[in-house]
Structures
1.
Amino acid sequence: MNASDSTSNLSPMERLEAIKRSSANPIPELPSDDTTEPLLVDVAISTEAIQAFHGQSGDSFQATPISVDLSSPDFDVVRSIRVWDVRHYSYRRHSREGDCERSLDLVVGSYGDHASFQWSDHAPAPIPAWLPLGNRCEPPSYFRGVGVEWTDTFGFSDYELIRY
């Protein structure tokens, strides 16, 4: 990974433990009395079983949308996720004697308060410096790829970039 701000000396498990300690609900579980041990259940279910349960078959099966409230501060990490999809970028001289021209096709995805992911062609912030959008005409600059950035519960920002 490419750290854009600062890095932590904690291992991933230590970071998860620290997140649990600072969370409003450090152990998300179903309500139960304190005398019983939590029951872990390994569940696997097929689409056919779901359709049989709901009495539906074929292409008419419709998934029920689930509404999740992510407005709690515990979900700041999810709301901080930005997906930068650079479908095409070039900075080049259009003709032998012409001026340099920039061409950019970019969309940005993010999560809302109710777990809805949406794409927008208007960036919520300036294009991040970690996106390698060059500005040289000689040789021309080209880029195509996807970058994902986020800020964790400690305020550390990070990103991952995939060229294609």
2.
Amino acid sequence: MIVPIKKLIGITTAAEKKARQLAELEADEPTWAGYFDEARRQQRLWQYVYYLAAGVDVEYGEAKGEKEADASRFDLLQSLAEAEWEKAKLCQEISRRLGGAAKQAADQVFRRALQYSGAFLAMAQDELIRRTVD
């Protein structure tokens, strides 16, 4: 269970970096505040669950979300949708092994990840349509 939790922490960190990169491209940055708050909350949750499971703090490495040079809005949205989908799959796997409040929290993160994945895919589709029209 430790490896999926560690992956989940890394994916959450990488997704937040990509969202910050996307927010820099858009004038409406307050829209992203809720996503950033949720990402920080999820990171704290999974760090705590990791600590409970492993008995040690998670080791921090470089997340796979390095800033992509000249990444387009469409590419960032697609990448965020993929990250959220991966988070949902990992949450589902981890949730099976948990109980009580930790299971409820994992299930909530699972639902949020599915919602965000769908929203980012819809935004990417809108961006693709906008590109073809222009």
3.
Amino acid sequence: MKLSRKAKRYDDSVLPGEFQGFEVFHRVDAELEGTLEGFLRRSQDGVQLGEVVLERHAPKKLSFAKLKNKAEALSEQVNYLKERLEIVDHDRRGMYIQLRSLPPYKDDTQIQFNEISIGKNKIVVKRIAFYRKEEVKQQVPLQLSERELERLLFDIRQAIA
């Protein structure tokens, strides 16, 4: 997925999260001709999702207008996370759109938000925290119920289909 210069600079400044104890998953989706992979940890409180990547291996013809429509539809569909999603960045030539929580979660020490990056053949879902004191951005787990996880996987699959 080709990122805009702004998004690339931003992504380069996000530190990887500490996801020890998370299980890696990898599924082949024959119908979609793609793969679903990521890492998560299940507990009594639900699921902590480190990251999920859905990639379609058979390229699909897609205009930027259609990609934007899919991103807008996804932002409306994914209404079960703690914050609503809005388009914050896009790149017409690179066929890339970034959704983010607006407004994000804030407290005295940090700001956290969900981020979904949508490309022509790839979708990445993750949660990022900005720690004010250290001025550091780091990937953190996204807390979901099992039902929310299944719905999220269904919704991103529909967006890339």
4.
Amino acid sequence: MERKIPTVFLKAYELIDENTMDKLDDVETPLMLVEEIEDFKENVFWVKIRNLWVLIGKIPPLKPSPEDIVLFREKGQWGLFKYLGEEEDKVVLRDGKDERTTRVPKEIVESLELFGKVLRVQEKV
């Protein structure tokens, strides 16, 4: 007897370039990856970035924790940063390539369009 893993279909997008994201067909996803997230059908989605599939949980309702990678949009361009925490009135971030650390005033981070935090990265869906 074959046991099937429960699945759900989540929205999916492809990052075409720094400015453009296109809608793709919904992706079948194992329920165990998202069942802990409130209203996961609306708050979790896949983004194909080049040859990788990234599972993203929206901010809010999710909140970044230290070491989380966050997908954001600024001035029409997409980017990633690693959230390292907060010190006084500044937020400590690392760039997406994990090369530079910077301390940014909270107001600047709050002005970004934070789409979500990376929950999983894989080559296939």
